[in-house]
Task: inverse folding
């Protein structure tokens, strides 16, 4: 019998190595109940079965730390300022919020009570710092009060401090190094990665703001990537397959989500870690915008040989500023983020040769394929290696490709 038990334990260990789920945290508690209230917290635990709960923190005039996102209570029925009110003046106000057609009521919850719930139910707390009196980039004098509450409930090792305020996080890492920190951001720019690495602060990135190479870079720097807000199975699968170790959700139920296959990180090769050139067979334009403002996105589809290639380095020039971009060839596309309103040129280097494409815009985010198929006098020609579209007396170079 002991041998069978041992064999089962070994088998379970083997299976776990190839199947996993990220950690799940309830956003502002959960979607059942007024956000950031005790009812939302308890439903996050008992109905959704989250193993973590995320809250926002504000401070009252007399220094009480409360769970709330805004500076006032207007969204829940009261024209009352939190920073200008003592806790005794707001603690009994009935907060009302309708969510998915259901009206919920509740009262404001202190961070002290929230941490008590987390301790009792063995839940890890994610405490998002909002700009508040004594807890902001310019003044962290009240953070010690918050830390004492975390310490009181013996959650120092479990608690996560989350915020988009970099100076606040630097203060926490300097003065409370035992606390885990996360940086709330929309994308992992080179600047953000450098800062997170320097301060050893894990990034928490909005859905769609990162790819598997971003996660690999973070892992290389000893960092984990969390993401928010994940509310569908498609988003769960997409970001789980990218390696996000934690997901913040409003109403996604972890028990309903399938397990994920383990990622072979050794096979995810960063462009900067290899000098192996990959031959590019063809490049075709997929989608553009009529103007590319900062953070606008355009995509190009890439066909790469050999088929088992994992990535390739691309230099995308926006005016006279070059930006290094890596593509994941399992998806056959690369994200290009514009820094200014300009034409974008992409140059791919491979085997000592080069292929260049000019990304040219179309109105209403019209795919080039649709423009080419338009019957209103569209004509396409190949001139000096450039694919040219003639449309409504206008001539634009849609895709240029040449091999030198």
Result:
């Amino acid at each position: 019998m002991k041998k069978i038990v041992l064999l089962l334990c070994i088998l379970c260990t083997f299976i776990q190595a190839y199947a996993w789920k990220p950690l799940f945290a309830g956003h502002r508690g959960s979607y059942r109940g007024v956000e950031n209230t005790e009812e939302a917290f308890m439903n996050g635990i008992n109905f959704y079965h989250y193993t973590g709960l995320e809250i926002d923190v504000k401070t009252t005039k007399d220094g009480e730390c409360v769970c709330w996102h805004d500076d006032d209570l207007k969204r829940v029925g009261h024209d009352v300022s939190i920073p200008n009110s003592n806790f005794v003046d707001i603690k009994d106000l009935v907060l009302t919020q309708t969510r998915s057609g259901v009206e919920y009521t509740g009262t404001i919850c202190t961070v002290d009570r929230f941490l008590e719930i987390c301790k009792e139910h063995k839940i890890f707390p994610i405490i998002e710092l909002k700009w508040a009196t004594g807890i902001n980039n310019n003044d962290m004098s009240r953070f010690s009060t918050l830390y004492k509450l975390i310490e009181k409930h013996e959650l120092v090792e479990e608690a996560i401090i989350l915020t988009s305020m970099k100076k606040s996080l630097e203060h926490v890492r300097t003065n409370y190094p035992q606390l885990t920190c996360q940086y709330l951001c929309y994308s992992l720019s080179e600047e953000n990665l450098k800062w997170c690495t320097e301060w050893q602060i894990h990034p928490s990135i909005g859905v769609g703001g990162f790819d598997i190479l971003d996660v690999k870079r973070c892992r290389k720097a000893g960092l984990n990537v969390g993401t928010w807000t994940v509310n569908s199975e498609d988003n769960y699968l997409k970001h789980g397959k990218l390696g996000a170790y934690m997901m913040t959700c409003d109403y996604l139920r972890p028990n309903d989500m399938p397990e994920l296959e383990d990622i072979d990180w050794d096979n995810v090769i960063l462009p900067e870690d290899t000098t192996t050139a990959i031959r590019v067979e063809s490049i075709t334009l997929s989608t553009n915008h009529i103007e590319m403002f900062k953070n606008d996105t355009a995509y190009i589809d890439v066909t790469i040989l050999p088929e088992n290639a994992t990535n390739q380095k691309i230099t995308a020039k926006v005016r006279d500023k070059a930006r290094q971009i890596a593509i994941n060839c399992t998806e056959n596309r690369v994200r290009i983020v514009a820094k200014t309103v300009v034409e974008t040129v992409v140059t791919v280097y491979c085997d000592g040769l080069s292929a260049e494409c000019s990304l040219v815009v179309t109105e209403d985010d019209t795919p080039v394929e649709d423009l080419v198929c338009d019957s209103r006098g569209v004509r396409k020609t190949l001139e000096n290696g450039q694919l040219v579209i003639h449309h409504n007396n206008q001539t634009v170079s849609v895709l240029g490709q040449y091999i030198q």
In short: Residues 314 and 348 are 5 Å apart (CA to CA).
